[in-house]
UniProtKB/TrEMBL annotation, chain A:
Record keywords, A-Z: Coiled coil
Keyword Glycoprotein: no
Domain Tubulin epsilon and delta complex protein: 71-248
Coiled-coil portions: 279-306, 384-418
Protein name in UniProt: TEDC1 protein
UniProt-listed PANTHER family: TUBULIN EPSILON AND DELTA COMPLEX PROTEIN 1
Pfam family, one: TEDC1
Species: Oceanodroma tethys
UniProtKB/TrEMBL annotation, chain B:
Species of provenance: Oceanodroma tethys (Wedge-rumped storm-petrel)
Annotated protein name in UniProt: TEDC2 protein
Gene: Tedc2
Disordered, as annotated region: 1-73
Pfam families: DUF4693
Domain of life, source organism: Eukaryota
Compositionally biased tracts (Polar residues): 16-25
Length: 431, 309
């Protein structure tokens, strides 16, 4: 089982089965390897760039914080030394926990899928921005010796930024054109009917067949990984039972004395209450959201009070009419329909809704029935998303972002108007 | 675009130079010629009813090699639907997709699930976790997830609020509108409450925060569908272009909003505190106005307020 597990892991982060076996007995030699393994695996999940040249203590720190992020709570792990000299058994426990908690194998298989060149990402969340926060401070200003920045520099930068966006747009459109041509012209040639056309990589194969050896190797290695995964799934009970024996060993070896130390040592854990950047940024976000919601709440409160008053006014004058049976029936119906409407809204606020993230492969499926292969698609792949849906969602997102931007601009306008009154001798006429 | 004899479009970024796929070229490209020849032999069978390139194949392989004077280039457009991938690749591909399908359908056996749960339970109860016991405490990952979802709520709710008109023709409509607004009020308070809980969780987790906090933006989606082939189907060229354009626009808007907020925080205080050289006050004002209110595109006009004496 352990062997299959190891073979199901991606090639860059594949341990030797012995490492796991040694870890069971808490052999210190296995510790460093295990740290490296966890580092490699977690980095892949978190989408970061990683090189083997990252120092050991950095790797260990990363692994610890990633485990913390996912809610792993064994203090022994966090107490392990930063030189990687001990603790392989703890690491083994953490590894097994991750296997379960993050569906580690499945996630890695999905992420490391052989690329076809047609991929694009679908999610609408702004996951690029936080990283760029660190970058901007380095692009340091080239302004003069005194601390002032000329506002024209700002304007110039802004112009450049807009230019970059425009060129990016042009390039994307060009890419679309070419991609579409490939899809269109190779339609009907692919042996996989659900796709129907070649991917970019495959088309390249036609042009440069000598490259296909590499692609072939990648495909075959992936297939082997998948088969190892299937094997592992069969042997899974064995693995978990084996892990239980690890826990048994630990229990025997005197967890009793450890738990006493645990109480003593707990105070030694880093109480980084004030300097946790993650918590700070999250608190910031929460505060902003709270502010927005509270403004909304106040706004609604006013509106509702106003409306209610008006409503009661109206109702007073039509007392007899409302006593009639038909109105209470309609009232009930109205209540139901409003509830339905709000239920819709509630489902949008629910985190359980499975939003698409990650990259998808673009496939061209013409709507025309005359295209021929449309008929032969008997089984639809489970997760084919249509571009129409994605476009619609993006449009909604765009609309809401535009509104937000306009609101911000309006706020600025008001504040600037106030400032203008303070400026002597000048009147500002807005465009 | 009319590009008669050139291969149109193998994307430059992915594939290097844009060369025409010339079959008759004999200089130094023996390998590809030979391979090309093989491909064409294989691809001789008539293609599907695409209607794309239905002209008969008048480029016989002998003809190509014999005619070294005018090498004919073949476009993807003409040959696209007749192309066939090399056999080893096809085999590997079908093995691969079958393996993916099997993995996707593979379920965890009951034994395995039971054994796994036993292990997980034991590991959770053996040692108490750092965050205090109550089940409401979430892991940092979960907190972030919930927060992400809540981000959209204010603007969504605002839209609903604005959708309610101020005047109503009938009593029923007015009643409906009132109920809707009240419902929205409830939703807002629920969200605020959720936020408070999240804030408390956040503080709770901080106690165990490790110094080098990673703020990972992993794309963790639901594990059930993870192994399925993620396809995004588009039905026309226009759709593809719209898709890309919209994605770019959304990213741009995100960035603009972030920049706007930062600029507001930095620039407005400068004007408000009057810490600038008096001489350039007007220009400064104009520049900042443009940047903050017009997205840097249009300028206000500043007029001297001189009374005609």
């Amino acid at each position: 089982a352990v062997g299959a597990l190891c073979r199901a892991l991606p090639p860059r982060a594949r341990p030797a089965p012995d490492t796991l076996r040694r870890a069971k007995f808490d052999r210190p030699q296995a510790s460093l390897d295990f740290w490296r393994l966890l580092y490699a695996l977690l980095k892949q999940i978190h989408g970061g760039k990683w090189t083997e040249s990252d120092g050991t203590d950095n790797q260990i720190r990363f692994v610890k914080s990633a485990l913390w992020y996912h809610g792993y709570g064994r203090p022994e792990l966090y107490r392990l030394p930063s030189d990687g000299s001990a603790g392989s058994r703890e690491l083994l426990l953490a590894f097994s926990w991750l296997l379960h908690r993050l569906s580690l194998l499945e996630q890695l298989l999905a992420r490391n899928r052989v690329k076809t060149g047609d991929e694009t990402s679908v999610c609408t969340c702004e996951d690029d921005l936080p990283n760029s926060q660190k970058g901007t401070t380095e692009i340091a200003p080239e302004y003069g010796l005194d601390d002032r920045v000329d506002v024209r520099y700002l304007q110039w930068l802004n112009g450049r930024l807009r230019f970059q966006w425009r060129s990016l747009h042009a390039q994307h459109q060009e890419q679309c054109k070419l991609l579409h041509k490939i899809h269109l012209f190779t339609s009907g040639s692919h042996m996989d009917q659900t796709l129907g056309h070649f991917s970019v990589i495959e088309t390249d194969l036609i042009k440069q067949p000598e490259n296909y050896k590499q692609l072939l190797q990648l495909l075959e290695s992936e297939t082997m990984q998948l088969e190892a995964f299937l094997e592992w799934k069969q042997l899974e009970p064995v693995y978990w039972q084996w892990m239980e024996t690890v826990l048994d060993n630990m229990a025997e070896e005197g967890n009793m004395c450890e738990s006493q130390d645990a109480h003593v040592e707990k105070s030694g854990l880093p109480k980084a209450t004030s300097c946790c950047p993650w918590a700070d940024s999250l608190t910031g976000q929460i505060d902003r959201l709270s502010r927005d919601l509270m403004t909304l709440r106040d706004q609604l409160h006013e509106l509702v009070t106003h409306r209610k008053a008006a409503w009661y006014e109206k109702v007073k004058t039509r007392e007899e009419e409302l006593q009639k049976e038909w109105f209470s029936a309609t009232a009930r119906k109205i209540k139901e329909s409003v509830e339905l409407k709000l239920l819709d809204l509630a489902s949008l606020c629910d985190p359980k809704k499975n939003k698409m993230h990650g990259s998808c492969r673009l496939v061209f499926r013409s709507k025309h029935p005359a295209s021929g292969f449309g008929r032969s698609v008997s089984k639809e792949p489970v997760s084919a998303v249509s571009a129409t849906e994605v476009i619609r969602e993006l449009q909604m997102r765009e609309a809401s972002l535009e509104r937000e931007l306009k609101q911000l601009q309006e706020e600025c306008r008001q504040r600037l108007d106030e400032i203008a009154e303070g400026l002597e001798g000048v009147i500002c006429i807005s465009p | 675009a009319a590009e008669p004899q050139k291969t149109p479009g193998l994307s430059r970024s992915a594939l290097g130079e844009q060369q025409s796929f010339s079959v008759g070229d004999s200089s130094g490209r023996k390998n590809s010629v030979a391979a090309g020849k093989r491909l064409f032999d294989a691809g001789k069978k008539s293609c599907g009813s695409q209607g794309e390139s239905s002209k008969k194949d008048d480029l016989t392989t002998e003809g190509a090699l014999g005619r070294s004077t005018s090498p004919r280039t073949v476009t993807l457009q003409e040959k696209g639907c007749q192309l066939k991938l090399p056999l080893p690749y096809r085999k590997a591909y079908s093995r691969n997709s079958r393996a993916w399908e099997r993995c996707r359908l593979c379920q965890t056996s009951a034994d395995a699930a039971a054994a796994r749960n036993r292990f997980i339970e034991r590991i959770q109860t053996t040692v108490s976790f750092l965050s205090s016991p109550p089940p409401s405490t979430s892991t940092p990952a979960e907190i972030e997830e919930e927060l992400k979802v809540l981000q959209d709520v204010p603007s969504l709710l605002s839209q609903y609020v604005e959708a309610e008109p101020a005047d109503h023709p009938t009593l029923q409509r007015e009643y409906e509108s009132l109920l809707t607004l009240e419902g929205l009020q409830t939703t807002v308070s629920q969200c605020l409450h959720k936020l408070q809980l999240l804030q408390a969780d956040c503080a709770g987790d901080v106690g165990s925060c490790s110094p080098a906090c990673v703020s990972p933006r992993g794309q963790t989606c639901d594990s059930a569908g993870v192994l399925a082939v993620p396809l995004l189907c588009y039905s026309s060229f226009q759709e593809l272009r719209d898709l890309f354009a919209l994605k770019l626009r959304v990213s741009m808007l995100h960035q603009e909003i972030a920049l706007q907020k930062v600029m507001m925080a930095e620039l407005l205080p400068v004007l408000e505190s009057r810490l600038y050289p008096e001489a350039s006050a007007a220009q400064l004002y104009r520049a900042i106005y443009t940047q903050l209110c017009e997205g840097g595109k249009r300028f206000p006009v500043l007029v001297r307020d001189e009374l005609a004496d």
